[in-house]
Amino acid sequence: SFSCRPRTASERILLFLLLAVCILCAILVILLCQQKSPPLLRGRRNVFDCIKDTESCQNTSCSHVCLTETCVQAAATLLKNMDPIVSPCEDFYQFACGKWAQHHELPSDRSYYDTFSLMKDELKAKLRELLEEPLCEEDSNATISAKNLYVSCMNERAIEELKEQPLLNLLEELGGWPVISSNWSEESFDWVLQIARLRQYNNDILLGQWVAPDGKNSSLNIIQLDQADLGLPSKEYYIQGTQQLEAYGRFMVDIAQLLGATLEQAINDMREVLEFETVLANFTIPSEERRNYTAIYLKMTLAELQEKIPLVNWTLYFSIAMPLELTDDEEVVVYAVPYLLSMSDLVTNTSKRTVANYILWRFVYNRVSNLDKRFLAKQQEYYSALYGTQAISPRWKTCTVYVNKNMGMAVGSLFVKRHFNEKSKETAEEMIKDIKTAFLELLDEVDWMDGETREAARQKAVLMSEKIGFPEYLMDPQALDEEFEGIEFKPDTYFENVLLNLKHYSRKEQLKLRTPVDRMQWVTSPAVVNAFYTRSKNFITFPAGILQPPLYHQNYIRSLNYGGIGVVIGHEITHGFDDKEGSKASAYF
């Protein structure tokens, strides 16, 4: 029962203390509410006065705390990854990101995982949904091709049934791969002819060749030559006895066997190929020695190139690799003359069988990912030793990435129509303007620049243009179709689709030689989590894919956007200073 009884002395004292505490708390709350700003900020503008919620706080009674759904979600994400027990003064990284690993398990197909990885995974999921939607009346020919390419990549049944036959057919057309061929002819083999044929498939083997704006005259496209990539990431990996080199050698033998070589033949031939590539790797110039662009840039005519590097039949090479006729006075830019001299000498003094095996090995290496699960399993064993990944990526991720990489504008048109807020472009433009202004103010304050250098930097920043979100022509189906004119992918021939795409891309790039430099051309597709500074054209690009949470949201308060995508904008603005047009300068920067 709830009967009444007199309170004891102890109870009366506790009741009095409780009442006193409540009164004290009420007084403190009143004082805090009346106080307009903390003592440290009195006389200055309160930091919250600078924060305007771009969508929900446009009125004059904007609260100091944003409580919209978007803000609450952003705050929850930040709090989830923070470790508030740690003092930010002692270890700020642990304070800000200490619980990231706890909430984000490293995927078995990755060697690292960060915020950008998370954004990329979310983007892939959105693209998958778009590519798996049935064809509809709104689809252009370009988006139909993108969806068909995705379907063909996902058609594992057809890929498993065909096995290695599509690649074997192609190798036969290319004269055969000695390690698996019993009728390969040494007499009919010409290494220059072979690498030129493979350049038609956008493969640079033994030497790199492409068409792009001249680094010292960015208004003109020009043929450019350089050292080629290797099977391993760099020359340091070719040190004898390393785990990565051994794994690479095993991978060579495994793939040769899957394509029909005997174990003995595969071991013997691939050992010679690896020895050849190891010597070739030692000729390559390390990236740290290639930073001085002026020092490695050398322009000459084709006639001068033939005289300077005589062991390469350049006339034969360009007659096959280029879909255009060239004359002896055609100019080229060469970045690696010492490498090309050493490479051509090595090839000339190596057996034709070894050279032929190497050239087609590098081509086969690039096509393994387009074959059946037996090949993918061997590739994963190699990647595990090289990168530490423990599993193959889910097929839908592999196919989504491939289609977006190769038909980026078609995929991008689907993405921006569904997932990009047009207002984001205006907001990003405003942010870029603000950050540029701040950068120019900083230039006036630095004391390590002389006046001439400071003015050059100022002009570069002022003339820097930006591309945000996506190119407008993506909204025009006819204009989009023109970009992919000449290719039509079928849903049941994945390997053939890949080859068609490679030849289309290579031809399109080479034909730029006779066209003016398009300064308005985008360097990336829209559905990409990255940002870019294009040196030759002096513009920065922020695709729709990076204008996504947690770096950016149209409804974030400005402090979150400036602390997120604003950092990326500042990074790209300061990426490099050449001359104001984007040509490489010998002075200033």
Automatic annotation (TrEMBL):
**Cellular component GO terms held in the UniProt record:** plasma membrane
- From the UniProt record, give one GO term of the biological process aspect: protein processing
Q: Which cofactors, by name?
A: Zn(2+)
The record's keywords, sorted A to Z, are: Hydrolase, Membrane, Metal-binding, Metalloprotease, Protease, Transmembrane, Transmembrane helix, Zinc
The Peptidase M13 N-terminal domain extends over 88-471
Q: Does the keyword Cell cycle apply?
A: no
Q: Which PROSITE patterns match?
A: NEPRILYSIN
Q: Does the keyword Glycosyltransferase apply?
A: no
Q: Please, which domain of life does this record's source organism belong to?
A: Eukaryota
Q: Which residue ranges does UniProt annotate as crossing the membrane?
A: 12-32
**Residue ranges constituting the Peptidase M13 C-terminal domain according to the UniProt record:** 530-581
In terms of Pfam families, this protein maps to: Peptidase_M13 (PF01431), Peptidase_M13_N (PF05649)
Entry GO MF terms? metal ion binding; metalloendopeptidase activity
Question: In which family does this protein belong, per the annotation?
Answer: Belongs to the peptidase M13 family.
* Name listed for the protein in its UniProt record: Membrane metallo-endopeptidase-like 1
| Source organism | Trichonephila clavata
* Gene responsible for this protein: Mmel1
